Amino acid sequence: MILAGEWLLPVSRPPIRHGAVRVAGPRIVAIGTLDDLKRSYPADAVHVQPGCVIAPGLVNAHTHLSLTSLRGLFPPGEFPGWIARLAPVITALDEDDYADAVSFGALECLRSGVTVVGDIAFGPEAPAAAADAGVGGVFFWEVLGGDVDTLAQRLDGHDFPTDAGSCDGRTLCGLSPHSPYTSGPGLMKAVYQHARRYGYAHAIHIAESTAEIRLLAAGEGALRQTAERLAVGFTPPGTGGIRYLEHLGVLKDSVAIHCVQLMPGEAELLAAHAAGVVLCPRSNRYLLNGRPPVTALREAGARMAVGTDSLASNESLDLFAETRELLGADPGMTAKRALAIMTLEGAQVLGAARDYGSLEVGKYADVISVAVEATADPVETLVREGTPSRVRSVISAGVWRVIDGKPAFLTAELERKNARVAEKAARALNRT
Ligand SMILES: [Zn+2]
């Protein structure tokens, strides 16, 4: 099958006018102009998307798809109060609820042109449901609270794969200790070492709120009680978040999520040691955490990805809108860099660029087409004008997921299940 549009944006190389991609099975097998590919493969079916830019499936590098059903349940407000209200609702949901929420979240991803996520998962339900829908990426099992000694038992309890080789294919696995105020230093080190030893990706929410910074600086503020309850062995390091990770020896090659509240020198530390930073500017605004220091991170040379975070702290899983916030926050940010951040660079931050993030022979055939105005600069136009409603088609692993702007599978059942979980979550919130 050959898919073509006005422009093809491989990302790893310059745009191709009247470009096309050839898909066989789950992989990309050729790239070129439509004329060249038609000549070379005359027997292939050809799908031309008129007026469309063809691009790689987008990489939403920070999601909690298990919380998709919580959309609208928590109004925008300050982070410590928000997380205190959220925690009992999460506890009230079970594995079936998470699976239903992830199935609906995966549908929302595909409608927005996203085929790859960096998802925080509570167990195997999230990757299984996402894989069923055709969404791949890295799924970070979250481990927080409690003692180091129980780590192995808890990983077993959540069916964490016993070796990284078993998370092959489109689903890669990782670990996350959530944050410094929910995991003590011992647990953070143990989770990191487990990830390193077995070759899993490692991610952590860090330097997100001013409350977190006050806690790390002096053990004070609105997250103190949470830390006393969950972060066993925590003592305030008297530093910023990134330096704390470095002192614990858990920064190297880690995925650092948020990084809004950076201290002097910490952008450089991230650039030198972390796998990269995932920026979630709309979630940061929702929770009154401020704006991520995009210019400082770019100038320091940090690798960047972009994520929507969960629908408990964002209105949508629209990665175009999320990325445009980066352009607004940093006058030096180009459309070319922004496109990389939402595709190839995002995949690199997650450690998933071997298979995802660009249109290259050998990678998964995750290909989207987006209707934009005719243009001489397709990268600029896609980044400035892209919206979920302009996504005309989505293919992941060579399979059609969205055709003519509509999901290629029945959605009523997914919507009904999502509504059931949303009602259950609302009841749990009312009980608190
Ligand atoms: Zn998050």
Please give a structural write-up.
- There is one protein chain.
- This protein has 2 domains: about 90 residues, Urease, subunit C, domain 1; about 290 residues, Alpha-Beta Barrel (TIM Barrel), CATH 3.20.20.140.
- The protein has 17 helices and 17 strands.
- The strands form 2 sheets. Strands 1, 2, 3, 4, 5, 14, 15, 16 and 17 form a 9-stranded mixed β-sheet that branches. It has an 8-stranded parallel β-sheet with strand order 6-7-8-9-10-11-12-13, with helices on both faces.
- α3 packs across α17.
- It is globular, with a radius of gyration of 21 Å.
- Zinc ion binds next to loops.
Shape: globular
At CATH level 2, the architecture of the largest domain is: Alpha-Beta Barrel
The chain-level mean pLDDT equals: 95
Q: Indicate the proportion of strand residues.
A: 15-25%
| CATH class (first level) name of the largest domain | Alpha Beta
Number of domains: 2
Global Rg: 21 Å
Roughly what percent helix? Answer: 25-40%
* CATH-derived topology of the largest domain: TIM Barrel
Amino- and carboxy-terminal Cα gap: 54 Å
Work out the helix count: 17
Task: Let me know the largest β-sheet.
Answer: 9 strands, mixed
Distinct ligand kinds: zinc ion
Number of separate strands: 17
Entry summary:
The chain has 432 residues and is an alpha/beta fold.
Draw up the topology in text.
Blueprint: E1 2-8, E2 16-17, E3 19-24, E4 27-33, H1 34-40, E5 46-56, E6 58-63, H2 79-92, H3 95-111, E7 114-121, H4 125-133, E8 136-142, H5 151-157, E9 171-176, H6 185-198, E10 201-206, H7 210-218, H8 224-230, H9 241-248, E11 255-258, H10 266-273, E12 276-279, H11 281-286, H12 294-300, E13 304-306, H13 319-329, H14 335-341, H15 344-350, E14 367-371, H16 378-385, E15 391-396, E16 399-403, E17 406-407, H17 412-431
Parallel strand pairs: 1-5, 6-7, 7-8, 8-9, 9-10, 10-11, 11-12, 12-13
Antiparallel strand pairs: 1-2, 1-3, 3-4, 5-14, 14-15, 15-16, 16-17
Helix pairs in contact: 2-17, 3-4, 3-17, 9-10, 13-14, 14-16
This protein binds zinc ion.
